[in-house]
Amino acid sequence: MSNSLPKIAWIGLGIMGSPMSENLIKAGYDVTGFTLEREKLDRLAAAGGTAAGSIAEAVRDADVVITMVPASPQVEAIAYGPDGILENARSGALLIDMSSITPQTSVDLAKAAKDKGIRVLDAPVSGGEAGAIEAVLSIMVGGEQADFDQAEPIFEALGKTIVLCGPHGSGQTVKAANQLIVAVNIQACAEAVVFLEKSGVDLKAALDVLNGGLAGSTVLTRKKDNFLNRDFKPGFRIDLHHKDMSIVTDAARTVGAALPVGAVVAQLVASLRAQGDGGLDHSALLRAVERLSGAQV
Asked: Where is the 3-hydroxyisobutyrate dehydrogenase-like NAD-binding domain (predicted)?
């Protein structure tokens, strides 16, 4: 293993974090990980990484610390406090937060880290579990150009479209817009599916031809089989999309942007969650449309 590559600490080995950290190991990086679930640590070790017993142990010798956790509260929990990243990472380290959180949390984190001599990038991703496994994620980054340049080889092992979008928090703002577009797109597809089925059309044929025209999208390509098979095993959970819809609606309100359709879809996501479907994939928005159309789901 080449010693010239930066040593990486990876915090958060969930649906996204596990395959992403494994792609870095495949690319030759030395990865030490920490997460709350024992079996995820075992998986990292089996892939050639090192399991740490705590955040402090994971980040102590790292050149780069990467975090991938569900939301702002978890980012704050792992970053701050005596056992957190900022107290235990060495000065000069680069912290790359790939979680999807509020832009303000990213701005605050960068400020707090600067006092410790730690540089920060917010680098949320789009592409879901499949994109993480295939290393074709879209990565939207906020922070300094010099830090982005240093992190770019790491990003290239994780994704395909890698863009510095502006200062701290900008990556999160673009990610929020991404989640708005994805949710509205899934909702439109779900409505089309119910309409087509109630009309007695061959759904597979219809989705194939729709996906070949202007109505086609990455969302439809990725989610077509979920719709056809009613397979809602989570690639991206409704619970997380619910969180993201609050981020985008709050941020939009702050800057004075109206999101009329986004607000409706945010409510549909919230209602799906209230009906107990929060653990399902976001393509399960189809279930909400079915219920509204009289089906017992």
From this structure: 169-288
The whole-angstrom separation of Cα 48 and Cα 69 is 21
Give the separation between CA 109 and CA 163, rounded to whole angstroms. 20
Strand, helix or coil for residue 76: helix
Round to whole Å and give the CA distance between 138 and 266. Answer: 23
Q: Is 99 exposed, middle or buried (0-12, 13-18, 19+ CB in 10 A)?
A: buried
The tens digit of pLDDT for each residue in 65-86 reads 999 999 999 999 999 999 999 9
Is residue 222 helix, strand or coil?
helix
pTM: 0.94
How many CB atoms are closer than 10 A to CB 252? 18
What amino acid positions are annotated as catalytic residues? 175
- Tens-place pLDDT, residues 184-196: 999 999 999 999 9
Backbone angles phi, psi at 69, to 5 degrees: -125, 170
Strand partners of residue 281: 237
DSSP state letter for 253: H
